[in-house]
Design goal:
The complex is a heterodimer of chains A (327) and B (338). Chain A has 327 residues and is α/β, with parallel strands linked by helices. Chain A has a domain of 193 residues: Rossmann fold. Helices cover 35% and strands 23% of the residues of chain A. An eight-stranded mixed sheet of chain A has the order 6-7-8-3-9-10-12-11, sandwiched between helices. Chain B is built from twelve helices and twelve strands. An eight-stranded mixed sheet of chain B has the order 6-7-8-3-9-10-12-11, with helices on both faces. Chain B has a four-stranded antiparallel sheet with strand order 2-1-4-5. In chain B, a hairpin with a 2-residue loop joins β9 and β10. The two termini of chain B are 13 Å apart. Classes of the chains: A alpha/beta (327), B alpha/beta (338). The interface between A and B is large, with 45 and 39 residues. Chain A: This is ABC transporter ATP-binding protein. Chain A: It is a peripheral membrane protein. Chain A: It is found in: Cell membrane. Chain A: GO terms for molecular function: ATP binding; ATP hydrolysis activity. Chain A: Its main location: membrane.
């Protein structure tokens, strides 16, 4: 199958007073139509900047895409003009954000905000747009959709707001939906509702999804393919089953072990020592080596490459470099 | 009669109990209009009773707005109660005079959720952690305070030279260590941990959880651990209470609670957690709707509006919080009928 999205060697840097911050430093991945890709990592690893770069929403200055290609259906979005981007945003690629309160405008009704996108992108008149909007609100499970359309965001609860955001994002039938931590601000029972809703909609509409999250549990439930990011780089990429049964990169392993689970009864949690490095002062060699239990001399000197092994798994670590070189 | 088994009747004589909470209520007034008249009450905590034993960790879980933080703060008398009693080491906390309260404050401390807003940005670590020592007259300003603070922050995994630095020079995890050190300088017995790891990344979370558990062992601390993350609470707690809309709906030992949850809300809450294992498929109970407003809680059992098993009696009568299995308290008509 053709790839819907191909990101090649994407580099997005921020030029600050204190120096250059390589927020995204050479990220590659691809996505097929209808596929769900998870991007996992801790705060500051560049997962959100990656998604903003795809939509060209990185504020410039200070941010700039300095290198790389983002091929969406074969078209390079890095080179696209602003008016081309406006056509793509909302129409072909839509995005939902983490905090549904701050991403909805408090002075307009929910309906007005959803209809704006529909009228702009689908050339429908007001009445048709209103009908479409009610239909979308029903689709995402908002009760009393006919009345809710005229309500303001503050009248909605957190879960309802996120549903409204999803309705807005899906109203123009995008081919790709980018969901940036869509459930992080929500309570567990509401999170469960939203996850079920997104799974359901994915099956119905066949939208490709990029799910950005720090929660390995949410990824396990929703995604088929996962990328693990650390300090602006992809450190591991694998199918969901392989990643969870046999994580390769020491960071992935540490991340999985440090999360307390409901099923085990360990006394102590395993810990990744230290903290994420300061992006202005990245360690030399592998950026993970100061925290890595397997760090070798070479890790301190040279950056490892993202190695492809035979099962289509990718890992950026000197431990596996030899296997790659043999081939 | 079931009445006999209520928590509050059972515990008071027990020497093992450090904190006893009896029928605690905390309402916040809603004011409105030109004269700021009280037009309603937010029922943040509605008649809860439980005990915390010496040296244990009692976890409290619940979703936002369920009253778990208010409970923690009311026990410490950071908020005045509306009704009910809180006993600390046999003494009624709300009956103490101001000077007695000051003495008691050295024994109970709190660690807050957000390590960014809970530390004063204009003070150094030595000032932040040493303030209480000076205030209570336990050490003289200067070298004496600095020595105690350096020792404490070292226990919390920071270096002694850090005491001269300001909060902005630290990362989130380090700041939370400072927050913990601040609570520890007075050598307390009881610490309320109000979502201490929620604002932190996964890899940092585990460091802080391990630190809290080590400190508990070394210093014989008792924790009230408040969190919305059920897997974290399970890891650190001995017993766990589940709160919903100001009520405690279930309280049990952690293994009991996770292996055989009795209250429908606990069951739904547990099934809602995403499992980090793609091979595992679980039957998920998805609750309908949202939490009702605590300003206008439903009559009867507050959970009946979302409960998949709601019966007629649930809409009318508030279920009692009784011991339905040994050390397993539940407030549910469905369970307590049997």
């Amino acid at each position: 199958m053709e790839n819907l999205l191909e990101v090649k060697d994407l580099k997005t840097y921020f030029y600050t007073e204190d120096g250059v911050v390589p927020a995204v430093d050479g990220v590659d991945f691809e996505l097929k139509p209808g596929q769900t890709l998870g991007i996992v990592g801790e705060s500051g690893c560049g997962k959100s900047v990656t998604s903003l770069s795809i939509l060209r929403l990185v504020p410039n200055p200070p941010g700039r895409i300095v290198e790389g290609e983002i091929l969406f259906e074969g078209k390079d979005l890095v080179q696209a003009t602003e008016s081309e981007m406006q056509h793509i945003r909302g129409n072909d690629i839509a995005m939902i954000f983490q905090e549904p309160m701050t991403s909805l405008n408090p002075v307009f009704t929910i309906g007005k905000q959803i209809m704006e996108a529909i009228m702009l992108h689908q050339n429908l008149d007001k009445n048709a747009a209103r009908e479409k909007c009610i239909e979308m609100l029903k689709l995402v499970g908002i009760p009393r959709a006919e009345q809710a359309i005229d309500e303001y965001p503050h009248q909605f609860s957190g879960g309802m707001r996120q549903r409204a955001m999803i309705a807005m994002a899906l109203s123009c039938n995008p081919k790709l939906l980018i969901a940036d931590e869509p459930t992080t601000a929500l309570d567990v029972t509401i999170q469960a509702q939203i996850i079920e809703l997104m799974k359901d909609l994915k099956d119905k509409l066949n939208t490709a999804i990029i799910l950005i999250t720090h929660d390995l549990g949410v990824v396990a439930e929703m995604c088929e393919h996962v990328i693990v990011m650390y300090a602006g780089k992809v450190v591991e990429e694998a199918d969901i089953l392989e990643l969870y049964t046999d994580p390769k990169h020491p960071y992935t392993v540490g991340l999985m072990k440090s999360k307390p689970s409901l099923d085990d009864n360990r006394d102590r949690l395993e810990v990744i020592p230290g903290a994420v490095p300061n992006p202005l002062d990245m360690p030399e060699g592998c950026t993970f080596h100061p925290r890595c239990p397997h760090a070798m001399d070479i890790c301190r000197e040279k950056q490892p490459h993202l190695i492809n092994n035979e099962e289509g798994r990718k890992v950026r670590c000197w431990l596996y470099e030899k296997e790659g070189e043999v081939k | 009669m079931a009445e006999q088994l209520r928590v509050d009747d059972r515990v008071e004589l027990d020497d093992k109990d450090l904190v006893v909470v009896k029928n605690l209520k905390k309402y916040f007034p809603i004011t409105g209009g030109f004269l700021k008249r009280v037009v309603g009450q937010v029922h943040a905590v509605e008649d809860i009773s439980f005990t915390i034993r010496r040296g244990e960790t009692l976890g409290i879980v619940g979703e936002s707005g369920c009253g778990k933080s208010t409970t923690g703060r009311t026990i410490l008398r950071l908020l005045e109660k509306t009704d009910g009693e809180v006993y600390y080491d046999g003494k009624e906390v709300f009956g103490l005079s101001k000077s007695e309260m000051v003495n008691l404050r050295t024994k109970m401390q709190i660690v807050f959720q957000d390590p960014y807003s809970s530390l004063n940005p204009r003070k150094t670590v030595a000032q932040i952690c040493g303030e209480a020592l000076v205030e209570h007259g336990l050490a003289k300003k200067g070298k004496e305070v600095n020595d105690i603070v350096s020792e404490t922050i070292e226990k919390c995994g920071l270096a002694p030279y850090h005491i001269r630095r300001y909060p902005h020079e630290f990362s989130g995890g380090q700041r939370q260590r400072i927050g913990i050190a601040r609570a520890l300088t007075l050598n307390p017995e009881f610490i309320v941990c109000d979502e201490p790891v929620s604002a932190l990344d996964v890899s940092i979370q585990s460091q802080i959880i391990n630190l809290l558990m080590d400190l508990q062992q070394d210093m014989g601390l008792t924790y009230l651990f408040i969190s919305h993350d059920l897997s974290v609470v399970k890891h650190i707690s001995d017993r766990i209470g589940v709160m919903y809309l100001g009520n405690m709906v279930e309280l049990a030992g952690k293994h009991d609670l996770y292996e055989s949850p009795l209250h429908p809300y606990t069951q739904a809450l547990l099934s809602a957690i995403p499992v980090p294992d793609p091979k595992k498929k679980r039957e998920r109970i998805v609750l309908k709707g949202d939490i009702p407003s605590p300003a206008n809680p439903p009559k009867g059992c507050t959970f009946h509006t979302r409960c998949p098993y709601a019966m007629d009696v649930c809409k009318e009568v508030t279920p009692e919080f009784i011991e339905s299995a040994p050390d397993h308290f539940v407030a549910c008509h469905l369970v307590n009928k049997r």
